[in-house]
Amino acid sequence: MTSEKYIGLDVHQATISVAVLDSSGKLVMESILETSAATILQFFAGLRGRLLVTFEEGTWAAWLYDLLKPHVGEVLVCNPRKLQNQGNKSDRIDARKLAEWLRGGQLKPVYHGENGVRMLRELARSYLATVKDVTRVMDRLKAVYRSWAIPYEGRDVYSARHRVDWLAKIPHAGPRRRAELLYQQLDALEPIRKQAKRELLQESRRHTATGRMLQIPYVGPIRAALLVAIIQTPHRFRTKRQLWAYGGLALETRISGEYRYAKGQLQRSKKRLAIRGLNKDHNHDLKGLLKSTAMQASTRPGPLRDFYQALLAKGMKPTMARLTLARKIAAMVLVLWKEGASFDAEKLKSQAA
Predict the structure, then answer these.
(1) Of the candidates 8, 2, 1, 3, the residue with the CA atom closest to the CA atom of residue 22
(2) CATH number of the structural domain 4-103
(3) Bridge partners, 78 (sequence order)
């Protein structure tokens, strides 16, 4: 029988702390490696048996996953929140804990391995980061005008054509110069954002799944490309509820004392579940994407607004109706992509009835 070794890696920029456990849970080796491909592969080449490796999701996770996958039995990239608030902390302790949790099956995996959409995924990250940078500069500009009680509406305050007039409204030279520098940042970022958008759309056309996403009302080319880039493959989610949790749309519930004995019989308690809101551990980009689609669909004509209005007619609160609509959109993404189905507005009407 092949012996198994459970290996925890605490990865940092310069070094990696390693802990190796055998199948009985005994610590058989600890080491500190240089964070370089040659050193890591040399270390693993000296180990015998079936190797199971884990490390936290982070900056080096994709590189390390690709490096180790061909050389070990299993690689599990885990959720970094697992190590938070877990008593004493050091690189050596963290590596040992990871190895112990891997052996006990206590780690929650973070998905890796879909190389076919890597280019689309990286372009999506670039686009989203650039959009956030542009939005941040715009917010700072508006804050300058607000600090001097200068009213503004719409996007006119960002326009290059009216910029001199807007700057003239700031009476002091210091904040005026600050606004000028912010305008320069905005001018530098806008071409980059447009270039990132063009490359994202161009790459998305290589993926047939983006065409399926376009069937959903108010999912345009950008949203379709981002959905495919973030989700990568629908087969990582066995059910729609798993996708809801990944997208931050799952309700977190709490209950204790769930069972009791009554007259010698085990019975389930009638105590109500305590709902603590939506799950906080999720992909924030996907949640923003699903929420913005639901918000737009709920206010504009179409079958999704009809679905939303039907929920309101049943007495559902608007916030819960929008959450239900966002969940419905996520479920449609999964069905259209995984099963190759087509969007059917009539089916949506029957579900809302």
Answers:
(1) 3
(2) 3.30.420.140
(3) 56, 109
